[in-house]
Amino acid sequence: AVLASFNVKVEEMQSQQIGTVAENLCLARIPGDSRSKLCASEATAERGSDISMVVAHAFREMAKASDIAIQNGGGVRTDIAKGDLTMGDAYKLLPFANTLVEMQMTGAEIKTVLEEALDYALQPDGSDGAYPYAAGLRWHLDISKPMGERLSGMEFKGRDDNSWMPLGMNTSYTLVTNNYVAGGRDGYLSFKTVKNDGRYVDTYLDYAQSFVDYVEERGTITKLPASEYSTQSITR
Question: Domain range holding 217?
Fold first, then answer.
């Protein structure tokens, strides 16, 4: 009886509405892949995953000290369909026991870690889940180029900024990501160096709950403007 009562409570919590989704938010890891169950691959071919971009923005918003957020595509698990969004949907979207961590990194270090992650995403023995999504950061990607030269035109826009500026290679930024990739996993090797250097703080904010809080604050979520997507163009 206790278990049945507990299960009812869990079901009630999972069905609790946290907000509304104005349009389908497509899932992709690498732009144009066929991972989405809601959208054709053409829908994500130019800029990648809609929902992963929203998640990255949620993390930057909730980790109040951060300038930039980076989220690996593989950590975001589902499309989000137009309509009501429930607590259960949020925890299916972000099902891992991850927390948000903040790191102090220069623009040059951020470029390096993104190049590492992209290389891992593109390698046959790597994982496409490493493909990065970011808030406050955008770039042009040429996957035909060698590692270290794939990203160009990197630009930064702080949470209170109105316009994009070139990413300062010697400028220090506060970057938020999840504790999984912050440990150097999924090809994000340089994150581990930063962590070992002590330029790392675990906020202990649960990553799924942070997304829930973001949705509840907004009420409605929708696709970000095209100019906010981290992958601005992709050359294959």
Answer: 2-235
Q: What would the two tokens of residue 196 be? A: 């070992």
Sign, CA dihedral 195-199-203-206, equals negative
d(CA 52, CA 30): 11
Which residues, at least 6 apart from 76, have a Cβ–Cβ distance to it below 8 Å? 27, 49, 51, 52, 55, 93, 94, 133
| pLDDT, tens only, 70-87 | 999 999 999 999 999 999
Number of domains in the chain: 1
Asked if residues 82 and 22 have their Cβ atoms less than 8 Å apart, the reply is yes
SS3 31: coil
- Dihedral (Cα; 42, 150, 229, 38), 10-degree rounding: 30
Give every CB contact of residue 13 below 8 A, 6+ residues apart in sequence: 87, 88
Yes or no: say if 178 and 99 are a contact pair by the CB < 8 Å rule. Answer: yes
**What count of other Cβ atoms lies within 10 Å of the Cβ of residue 7?**
10
Q: Among all chains, which residue has been given the structure tokens 């675990």?
A: 202
For 95-150, write each residue's pLDDT tens digit: 999 999 999 999 999 999 999 999 999 999 999 999 999 999 999 999 999 999 99
- Each as own residue / partner, the long-range contacts of residues 46-50 (CB below 8 Å, 24 or more positions apart, any chain) are 46/231, 46/233, 46/234, 47/226, 47/229, 47/231, 47/232, 47/234, 48/73, 48/131, 48/133, 48/229, 48/230, 48/231, 49/73, 49/76, 49/133, 50/24, 50/25, 50/26, 50/223, 50/224
pTM above 0.90, yes or no: yes
Are 210 and 63 contacting, i.e. CB atoms less than 8 angstroms apart?
yes
